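Re: that backbone. Tokens:
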């Protein structure tokens, strides 16, 4: 793990604030001259940093910066379109979904996939780690769950994690499709042995559960997404 050093341009100001708060020798003003106001300010800066969500423009810049393949970019744009449509409609039904978080996580859910095609790493986890390192904590947490959800959802509400996870499963390459078509393609490409098929079956069962919850709230047909 890289050791953080003050003055390192890759280290954000809020992160260095944590170092300062944890080490009296590095606190502004040193020792007793440190004011409570300064400590509160630093903690507030840290809290704001953890809650940051990149704009659409910032997401597009990151997608280019990290060399995402063109087909993966197109896929991510379609996922964002589906996810935002569902989020807006669900909010009309009384849900409280953070649209900015959904858009950012949708656009960046495959941020490290291009590199992981070479390294064979789990791109959900490497994406999570990269975004956390940038200070995009909430976005990273959603990205980490875009393949498998980390916990069971609330049966009466839909989370940002569920929205992005579901939207990703409704986009095959750069085309919106049904879950049946998406999983048929996944099984054909990756279901080469029984263990892989069992994995995909469990994944399919989970995502159909999310679909049922979303569209029970919306009172529309899942196939309506095909016309977006």
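Recovered sequence:
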């Amino acid at each position: 793990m890289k050791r953080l050093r003050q003055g390192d341009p890759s280290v954000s100001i809020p992160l260095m604030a944590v170092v300062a708060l944890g080490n009296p020798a590095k606190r502004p003003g040193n020792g007793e001259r440190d004011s409570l106001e300064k400590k509160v300010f630093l903690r507030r800066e840290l809290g704001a940093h953890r809650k940051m969500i990149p704009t659409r423009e910032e997401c597009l810049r990151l997608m280019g910066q990290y060399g995402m393949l063109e087909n993966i970019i197109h896929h991510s744009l379609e996922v964002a379109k589906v996810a935002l449509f569902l989020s807006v409609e669900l909010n009309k039904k009384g849900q409280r979904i953070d649209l900015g978080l959904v858009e950012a996580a949708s656009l960046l859910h495959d941020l490290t996939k291009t590199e992981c095609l070479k390294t064979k790493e789990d791109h959900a986890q490497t994406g999570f780690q990269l975004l956390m390192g940038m200070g995009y904590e909430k976005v990273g947490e959603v990205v980490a769950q875009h393949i498998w959800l980390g916990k069971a959802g609330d049966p009466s509400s839909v989370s940002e994690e569920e929205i992005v996870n579901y939207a990703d499963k409704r986009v095959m390459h750069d085309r919106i499709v049904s879950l049946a078509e998406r999983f048929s393609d996944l099984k054909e490409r990756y279901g080469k042995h029984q263990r892989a098929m069992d994995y995909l079956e469990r994944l399919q069962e989970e995502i159909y559960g999310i679909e049922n919850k979303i569209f029970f709230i919306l009172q529309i047909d899942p196939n309506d997404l095909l016309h977006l």
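The beta strands are 171-172, 175-176. The chain is about 60% helix and 0% strand.
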